[in-house]
Write a structure and sequence with these properties.
Length: about 375
């Protein structure tokens, strides 16, 4: 191998720091702040954010950080607060907002045509709408009637696709709010409620708003789009929610119980021993060790799903080292801030009697 391709040796200096006793149930990875993603909020949520900001006398920056929104959004909502209060609470955008329709006359004619077909019992699908749009536009080469255009048309006018039989796709016209269009309102089919998870701070805000406005559980559930049973459940554990970390989505001890806690404890101790001896540990090794500990129990499969649950419970994360080795690391809760105060690669290890922190600084040989 040519000398210029040689890889310099890596010298490892290891520093040990005793952190103290922490239970396995409190082991978590530090949170890495990702780039802010765009999210849309309905008018009621925007007004709640502004109301909370005023009540707690927060600056725009602090409110934006607390609620996870852009600071510019806070300023924008303040400018149109009166319009937000007058608009329907479930809407996410004020009337007249967004990109303007290039050809409103085409939209109006198409909606009228769809309504006629619906009243006559003629199934209408996307291809038929695009063909009719091309016919109305008179062969205009600049108008493509693309799938993107069709999606925007359906979104603007509340059109929904409903499967009928095995082959037919019927587009249902749903008048969501009164509009100046000749569209007959049809009944909307209520779909099953989707499961959503909420942080403790959000649960407390919902309960506080319910009390302040003196709403029933049913009205609060409908307003916030949550299950009525969730409202009742949060009320029963409100004191625990207030005492728990605001960013958590579940109280300690919640969720499905571990079937074999002794297996978990033994495995975590084994992983720690391997790490202290410098032995790389990967998922296959953990599953093999789990099968050995279980003594050939046929009911225990040590599947990938089981491994994922183990890693999630104890904050184990896979870290690529080189090209083939995958290591696990465990980060204790309460000391994650120290990770951000150093530029050194950090490797955490769990012991049954406490938590041992091992910081390894890689120094290239010269």
């Amino acid at each position: 191998m040519p000398s210029f391709l040689a890889v310099p040796p890596i010298l490892a200096r290891t520093h040990y720091t005793w952190v103290g006793n922490l239970s396995h149930s409190k082991i978590e990875m530090p949170k890495v702040k990702s780039s802010q993603s765009h999210a849309s909020y309905n008018n009621s949520r925007k007004l709640e954010i502004l109301e909370t900001q005023r009540r707690k006398q927060w600056s725009n920056r602090k409110a934006a950080k607390h609620f996870g929104v852009a600071e510019g959004s806070i300023r924008k909502w303040k400018r149109v607060e009166e319009q937000l209060a007058a608009a329907p609470t479930s809407r996410k955008r004020l009337s007249g907002g967004g990109q303007k329709v290039k050809n409103p006359e085409l939209d109006r004619t198409l909606i009228e045509w769809i309504d006629v077909q619906q009243r006559e019992g003629v199934p209408v699908n996307g291809a038929m709408i695009k063909d009719e749009a091309r016919r109305i536009s008179g062969g205009d080469d600049s108008f493509k009637a693309s799938n993107g255009w069709l999606g925007a048309l359906k979104k603007r006018h509340g059109l929904r696709s409903t499967k009928r039989g095995k082959t037919g796709t019927l587009v249902c016209v749903v008048q969501q709010e009164p509009k100046d269009k000749s569209v007959e309102e049809t009944s909307e089919v209520k779909t099953s409620q989707l499961h959503a998870s909420y942080e403790n701070s959000r649960k407390l805000e919902i309960l506080e708003t319910q009390r302040r406005r003196q709403w029933s559980n049913r009205k609060a559930a409908k307003h916030f789009g949550v299950a009525e049973g969730s409202i009742r459940k949060w009320k029963r554990v409100e004191e625990q929610l207030a005492a728990a970390p605001t960013s958590r989505k579940r109280l300690s001890g919640g969720g499905q119980k571990i079937k074999n806690p002794e297996l978990d404890r033994t495995l975590i101790e084994w992983i720690d021993v391997q790490r202290r001896e410098g032995v790389p540990v990967n998922g296959s090794m953990i599953k093999d060790e789990a099968r050995r500990i279980s003594g050939g129990d046929d009911s225990f499969k040590a599947s990938n799903g089981w491994l994922g649950g183990l890693k999630k419970r104890h904050g184990l994360r896979s870290t690529k080292r080189g090209k083939t080795v995958s290591l696990f690391r465990v980060v204790p809760q309460g000391i994650e801030d120290s990770v951000h105060d150093t530029n050194e690669p950090i490797v955490w290890s769990v012991a049954s009697c406490g938590v041992m922190v091992r910081a390894t600084e890689n120094v290239l040989g010269t």
